[in-house]
């Protein structure tokens, strides 16, 4: 979703802005632009890729010591040059703004500002911000104060960067509900939506909090907390030295980030589970110092998440109820936040998110707190994200940066973390013997190796991909804990190859979807050798009897033989509790190869964004 980069330094910062935008491309966008201060504000925008913007910048010989840049993911108004950021207002002292987020009261603000005489050039909600700041700047001589007064009037989520023509020595930034950090360099200061955009310049970062405003100069910066339009005292925020390097966000020998991230799963899971590799048992402390006392009071779990993270929650529900005997509800965050659920104070709220910035998940977590849930836990891949910072307990998946829009290693590391949570809760509820715990830990230790060998099926998945690329629809079937894996397989296929795919619990087939089955509808089945296999086999017979073509991912010890219209890819022998994690891999590989055959933009599928920071 929209990305922001700002830079103010002793030398030309245009390359920093362009490099930064390139690093933020993965978030998803449909237009880009920048403003550079050089004898006035120079603005360049494009509906194309950042490479197109870079070309225009070169053609115009644009350079300067201060600038703000943006990738826009359209929400209000089509993707067009007119709607691309930065937006500019004012005559004598022009102001430029870039914005990530959504201004909910933009219609009322637009009317008010139009009545004041401001003319709008775009359909965006962002343009009200720039005119509002220009309007407030008539009442004060300080840009910082004008921004502070303006954000007090805005409802919604934002991260903004602002420049003023007559004061090119300064950039003002502010955040509320959308990510923004400062980068402190040797030769200048920077701001960006995420750390990856600044790694070539600095690894010293300050993560701004909601309500923070900051003023950046080339050799200093100052942060303030703004309350109801009043600038408080200057405050300090801790400086974090990022462990990331620019290599972490490099594609290396791979053709796509998604491919790299699929193949990184053994090491991503090994990193996530590092602390249990040498242990004989796992302790609640893994989730935070207060975990033991909170888990003692916990009598149920409410998992809130979106998309792939929601699927991880659905898998966890099977584990938590089976092994820990604890009731677990899993809800789509965007639904939960707008209904009237009955809250139980001692139901632990668990937010799962790769980015930790998903607007719906953050809002749902806050809503659960308002409703009276006492404690919360986050499972997240980004250490300084809003989600991690707002929960009582936390577990950091250590998948490393995930750049491809399609979530892969984030999902399998989430599952590994949720398995640890299951073990801890099962033990605390006296549902797990020492021997059983040792067996589960041994299984987890084996997981990276098991993932590595599962990746070997790639050539077989690739062989199937041609057939799927010729179809318009596909059905994915699973049972029990593998039903959410079927959902994840269908999501992967549709989001990157644009083949319409739906997942069903296979027992549901004859209650409706069987009507869709014919030779044009490939049916993918996840067929582990578990206690539901015989049920699944009957469901597969129902498909065959209707002329359907079956593509089955089976365990080596599953008795399903290839025949006409029945294709089988075999994994290793049944992996017990690890099975849903391992069965995810072939589905990711299948989706990836179908997308390759179809020639879609694998890492940046159309209309989608990596971090969904708006509703
Ligand atoms: C998955 O491939 C998607 N890109 C998407 O469903 C994603 O999982 C969802 O938007 C939630 O994101 P989060 O994990 O960052 O909260």
Overview of this protein structure:
The chain folds into three domains: 3-248, Aminohydrolase, N-terminal nucleophile (Ntn) domain (Glutamine Phosphoribosylpyrophosphate, subunit 1, domain 1), CATH 3.60.20; 254-452, Rossmann fold (3-Layer(aba) Sandwich), CATH 3.40.50.10490; 456-598, Glucose-6-phosphate isomerase like protein, domain 1 (Rossmann fold, 3-Layer(aba) Sandwich). It has 19 helices and 25 strands. It has an eight-stranded antiparallel sheet, with helices on one face. A seven-stranded antiparallel sheet has the order 5-6-7-8-12-13-14. A five-stranded parallel sheet has the order 17-16-18-19-20, with helices on both faces. β21 (473-478), α17 and β22 (500-505) form a beta-alpha-beta unit. Bound molecules: 2-deoxy-2-amino glucitol-6-phosphate.
